[in-house]
Design brief:
Layout (H helix, E strand, L loop, with lengths): L1 H15 L1 H4 L4 H13 L3 E11 L5 E12 L5 E4 L1 H4 L4 E5 L5 E10 L4 E6 L22 E6 L7 E15 L5 E8 L11 E3 L5 E8 L10 E5 H14 L5 E2 L2 E6 L1 H6 L6 E7 L4 H5 L6 E5 L2 E5 L3 E5 L2 E2 L3 H9 L6 E8 L2 E8 L1 E2 L5
Amino acid sequence: MIKILKAFLFLIILIFFPSAAFALSADEENNSAIYQEAGPSVVNIVTSAVSYDFFYNPVPSTGSGSGVIVDKRGYIITNYHVVEDARTLEVTLFDGSRYKAEVAGLDPGDDLALLRVKAPQSKLKPIRLGESTGLRIGQKALAIGNPFGLERTLTVGIVSSLGRTMRATNGRLIGGIIQTDAAINPGNSGGPLLDSTGSMIGVNTAIFSPVGASIGIGFAIPVDTVKKVLPSLMDKGYVSRPWLGIAGQNMDAADAALMGLPTGGILIADVFSGSPAEKAGLRGATGNMRAGNIIVASGGDLIVGVNGNKITSMDDFNQAIDSLAIGDIALIKLVRNGKVMTLKVKLEEMPGKY
């Protein structure tokens, strides 16, 4: 009898108080509200490319990723690796409408790309850009994207760590990476990582996984990086960066000793024609030699410092140059023919081809 009474009371609640019967927690309400707010800003990107087999026969292929609307004029931010080598691009908006997209700008060094679609402004809802400075480990993080082609999927987690580094496809080191345990899978790349207010704090870009799917270790490019490069991508199609104009090779202390050099640093393998380095008189390699088990450039300058900062690798060098502005003077400390000297180099804007 008691069971029948309980069932009757539950039925009454369902009929007269349906919202109470299925009430969401405050956290669930927040998740749902964020999805409703940010979801229309997330797009699905389908790419088509052509590769060639052993016999040079064309082999078409398709891929997919995510993107985020950042401007009413149709600009969409995504990952560079999502659109790399793509012949055609198609974007699907939140309402299901599809548009051809064009590449408006590329930033391989930050694994970012800017697309543009010609769609009615009424269909374009830019996402609210937050800040990645001030993030705290443990705060809530939400990811929206298209994993495995499943459009507009929401996953929830936390900010697991901050200040990670990740290497871009062109070899440059990306700093300030956000680590999250919000599930990120293939197809999520280019989608937003959001905070509990629904503001974008990062662009989901990669996972660490031995199985090719999420195991709770995902990475996002900080939104402060996105905001920094967006104006340049919109105006020029590439990111303005200070440029010295060399190709270098890491040289640790042990290999340096084998070559008769006093310390480690980076050996200049090549000085690009017309570059600030060439104008300042930096010298590239004139040959090669064996140092232990590797072949290294020889005869060029060994860079050991930039503006007082010790240089032991190309990552150190790139970070030192990136911290300066176009037109700044870089003091390059180097070793040439056993002598330590310092050359002044006026940095120029990096050409788009680099």
